[in-house]
Records
---
Amino acid sequence: MLLVRRVVQRTSHRRSFSASHTHLSHKKGLVLGVFEKEGEEAGLHLTEAATGFDQTVSGKLSELLTISGPALKKGRSRIFYGVHTDFPCVAVVGLGKSNAGVCGAENWDTGKENIRTAVSAGCRLLQDLEVNHVEVDGCGDAQSAAEGAALGLFHYDQLKSKKKTKVTTQLHGSADSVGWEKGVLYAEGQNLARMLMEAPANHITPTVFASIIEEKLAGHSGRVTIKKRSQGWIEEQQMGAFLSVSKGSEEPPVFLELHYNGAPESTEAPLLLVGKGITFDTGGISLKPSASMDAMRADMGGAATVCSSIVTAAALKLPVNIIGLAPLCENMPSGKATKPGDVVTAKNGKTIQVDNTDAEGRLVLADALCYGHTFNPRAIVNVATLTGAMDVALGSAATGVFTNSDWLWEQLQKASVVTGDRVWRMPLFQHYTRQVTDCQLADLNNVGKYSRSGGACTAAAFLREFVTAPHWAHLDIAGVMSNKDEVPYLRKGMSGRPTRTLVEFAAGLAHHG
């Protein structure tokens, strides 16, 4: 798949100072919100929490906001010192219009996105000042505020000797602690996926990946069953497509199987999530260019988001049954590796001519999808950093969704509007199917006969050949794998998208069927 470009993210803010500058020895800060004024509205439009704080300091905050410059625009921030003895520094952030809501043109809730963006900017500003505890204004939507804070503060620096200040956050001036805690769990799920994707491949092998997920789920053993399947089991299952990818590496493959049983009825049909788990992708014998190949440590983004969403579902105690499957391996060149033109046999007996060993994700998913059908799931969603063509088509704006089910598409799209991590429906025409079934040596070819044309669509058509379920969706997340500066509340690096959308989707199934 196409390698990812990276640019440094910049967050714009303005700093303002009160007359009494207090030293930040307490290391405690506060983030408050202010909306844009509507029409001829007089004075400042502070949030409820900001209004309460302003009253405790006898209007000092509103006075400083008025004299420090023009009204704060959406996403901008200012910092004030010495306003309150409990908070040596206060960051005020612009939330945009107070009546912002779901925008049909943008396919998200603009109000929620504004809160995430603003709160993340304020928290980062205080983190840069080495403030280690921040209270956050719920801004009328405590879940979105919590997501903005936790997502905005995440930074992968585990392997650096010099680390950013670790910041703890809590809700300020709001009774919606339930929404706040929910937002924290949603964000922590995405941050887990970001950590797995960002960490170097020699630290996250298939075996280590499986162990990390097992550790994260250890506290939910009453509802979760974990099975780490070995190469011997994979061979017994006759997963020839998966094995054709793994055999070039010295690292043994692992087929990770997670069962979360949250539904009141244990016999309720599960939601099946399948994630591509290539912990490093060189392309195999069809070797990738060396430039930016390091980004292929995140080619297990599908497995990372799927497993992280199940960890989050367990933490939320969602009343739904979920099964997660993650075929984990490396795609490496060696004397044992699959060669272009080789023919392999998938679990369902279909033969595949492997003309490009860098189109390996669809091979590991094919066997996982076949195996997943044995659980008679209510719906199947597979997630994969599958094709560079998806990045070319949609960039980082949205995850591409290929599905045979209008109902399933509606559920995914509805969830993405809430989370702001958008999805966009792509075609599954027979036009593309013919391009992978017209094959010289086998039943299927792992690349389309017209090579690059419609590459994301022919990859989806290939996967469809291993699906018999009426409700299946393939999410190609190659375009959203990393963040440069497009999503302002995510720092530069691997994004962990669309974990929150998967969680919201599962929650929707749990509560509404």
---
Amino acid sequence: RNFLQYTHSVYIARMSEFAMQMFDKAKKKAAMVGVKRSSQRLEDEEEGSDIGLPFAPPPERREGALSIPKVAGAILATVCIAALVSALFTSGGGGSKPARAPSSTSGSSAKPGNMGSAKPGSTPPSSSDSEAVETPTSPGNNNGTSGTDMAGGQKSQVLPAASLEEKVDSKHIRVHLERLYTIALENGGNRAMGNSGYNASVQYVLSTLATMPGLSVSVHDFVVNKNTLDATKPAILYIPSISAGVTKDTDFATMSNTGFGNISGVLIPSGFDADGSASGASNGCNANGTSDFGAVAAAADAGLPVIALVERGGCFFSDKMHHARDAGAKAVLIYNSNDGPVFAGTLGSAGDISKHLPSLGVSASLGHELLDLYSSCPFSKSNVLSRSRPLHHTHSSFAANTHDAPPPTSPLHSQPRQDTEACHGMEVGVVVSGSFEVITSQNIIAETETGDDTSVIVVGAHLDGVEAGAGINDNGSGSSTVLELARVFSALAYPSSAEDVMSLLLPVANRVRFCWWGGEESGLLGSRAYVKHLNQTGQLYRVALNLNFDMLASPNYKTGVYNGSDSDKQESNAVPGSTYIMKVFTDFFDTLESPWTPSAFTGRSDYGPFLEMGIPAGGLDTGAEGIKSIDERKRFGGLARTAFDPCYHQDCDDLYNVNMEEIALLSRGIAHTLQHLATDDQLRNTLNFPLSTAASRRIATAAVYKHRVPVASLLFRGHDLLY
């Protein structure tokens, strides 16, 4: 009560000061009556112009200059509101309170328009139903659940008509998308971290934020290792035993953060001992070389260059690569499990990536073919003695396919063979060209100047894209939406018109921190570095929750809500809070009778580092490379058996690859959820994440930020496969 009274007094003081400023402004304009306006540009600069600004006020607002009668009306209205609010605070506690989300003890509200209100024609939930703890599901078009959430029974509600939801304008989001697309076109067609396109994107966001008062803006630098493939020299996999040859992107693909080299050697699968017998461990996850890589180690000890063949699954790709390297392999091929196609995973960026082996992901069919070829001529230590005849490929023939770089001389070419008709092994060539570098990249942070700084809501989206294209859906859509949210918060904190003054109904109880992350596509590098920085400086406990928005405009979309109830699968203590955040989103869509579906909470985007530290998280997405089911087509439209974003990580992810109708809906849901959370003065209790618990979250960073994150079922880091 004391906090609200204090906020009320500050609010009245600010409104009075603002009214006087408006009055002075109107007098100055009145003095100009009769004076010929020689330049419309002056008015545009004062009120907001379509030229040069990424977001301009509606034309009708620009044309209607503030007049003394308008200002007088605004002052009168402000005084009336002040009197009303004063009456509410001095009523002895028996009157109604300012509108906000109901407390955890108040249950569901039955006001019209509330998220918890029953839909026409539906049966209101019984009291027993409202006390049940359910996992949100998505039945039919009215996806979601009735009843309570795991945070203690609190029901979310639609806030008053003058809300953030109505202030968000998808036209502004479109302008940001257009500018990001132009930036990509002007910088080699992409906005990838470490490239000029990303640097230009950072400058665009910073210049846009500079027009927004009420936000404290900073840049967080972080240092990363980066490898860059040579675009003029595509990777090559040369297998003489397969006469038809193999094709890049059909049979094999280059792993992210692969090592570089030109390797010619003998192919040996994991799962075989030095004597050639099967060891029973074939996935390369056992660090003991005598178990998974016994034959590899024996061949390497004999002086043979070895290319290891490993099956996907069981552990991270980086683990497989490290274990093969420790056994003496010079390169590694990881083939897909079951009947999976070619894939490109990531080896991560931790440690010295200059020591990574050249690594390729290959299709299951090619992997099984290589296993069959190997079984006809298995390695054993007894017949490792070399051959008198050369490899199937000669230096010259191999060089013709490897950018005129001959394979290194090896014992395979020089030592005589005891039995010229005996098995001579299967030779393979791997060539991956590129360079390593250490770069400094940036995150952008913009924080409100008001609100509880021990209850910070981090709202983030990654700003970078992949090198293949402009990255407009992934993730210009998310970063543009966050930029629009920052504009709306700024406008409400520092209103520029009487209309905006009247819309400021509620104080913001919690501080909001808008973030644009770098390096997500390279493995959540920016968000991970920022969380690490907060942890090391003792500031992480101030973060109450994280909202993340990645790919909000897929053309063959689904409306996906991060499934907060899955956060227990991430070995996280953030289950109750994450489930509550999910419910605020789903209540919004349910009220509109708009379908939604749970999205896997796998740590695939920048919320992952927050979840790892036990911080509640939530967000929305519209699908990536996943295939839309027939049921999803019935509920969301579009094409079944087709990717949600057919241009995912491709050069066609451009300005024509976004669904503006879907992003308009999602931006409204995001604005509603953000206002609901930002105005909850008991947010930590609502999330079941008290400050005392948050303060105890600080743990040794070495245990968290190593190359293998402590998340049991983590499939992705960013959009790159980890295992």
